[in-house]
Amino acid sequence: MARRTSWLPRLYEIHNSVRNSIRSHYERRDIEYLFQLQSRAAQQLMGMIDVGVRVGQSHLVDRTALEQFLDVLKQSDNPENLLESRRHCRPNPISRKKLRDLVQVDQPPIRLHCLPKALSLESGKVTINFQNMEELANALYGLAQILEHQYEEFSNQYEPAQIEIQSQTPENKEVQVLFEELEQLKATKQFHGA
Question: What average pLDDT does the chain have?
Answer without folding.
Answer: 78
